[in-house]
Amino acid sequence: MTKFRKVLLIVDNLRIGGIERNALDQAYWLSDFNVSVTILVLDGASTINNINFLELEKKFISRNCLEIILNNKGKIAAFSKIYRLIRQKKYDLVIDNTLTASFIISIIKVLTLSKIRVHTVVQQFISLSATKQRFKRMFYAQFTNHLIINSINYKK
């Protein structure tokens, strides 16, 4: 059903929330089609220190053979982790649920001459963001191959 064999999914955290739920559902669906899925959690400390999906869905994560990598050391460490993962594992696709990672990956693509596809999922109304945040979202959105709108209302 899918041509992808290895997918990297990036989320800010895996605390209980809508974006996180969608990311895990994407991972479960992909694993049903024998796609190897790695989830990179950019804010691992926030995940561990709060109620999270890692604890609540431990058996589903295990059953679906999801690899979950927690980053606990900030944006430079996240850059380094993403760089290593893309070079070592040679993913076919990155699904980014953060927007910031799209910018990081665009730099990595230049450094590694990678042609990896990046699909970025946008999940919040732009009008609900503060002016500075709105500008950052619009700027970072320019660095993805495909911008996916997760809500009909957002698209409007």
Description of the structure:
- The structure is a single chain.
- With 156 residues, this protein is an alpha/beta fold.
- It contains 8 helices and 6 strands, in the order E-H-E-H-H-H-E-H-E-H-E-H-E-H.
- A 6-stranded parallel beta sheet has the order 3-2-1-4-5-6, with helices on both faces.
- Helix 5 crosses helix 6.
- It starts with 5 loop residues before the first strand and ends with a helix.
- 30% of the residues are buried.
Look at the structure and give the mean pLDDT.
85
In total, the number of strands is 6
- Strand arrangement across the biggest beta sheet: 3-2-1-4-5-6
Distance between the termini: 30 Å
- Describe the biggest sheet? 6 strands, parallel
Strand content bin: 15-25%
Number of helices: 8
* Gyration radius, in Å: 15 Å
Unreliable stretches, pLDDT < 50, 5 or more residues? none
The string of secondary-structure elements, in order, is: EHEHHHEHEHEHEH
Query: Which geometry do the CA atoms define?
Result: globular
Helical fraction: 40-55%
Estimated structural class: alpha/beta
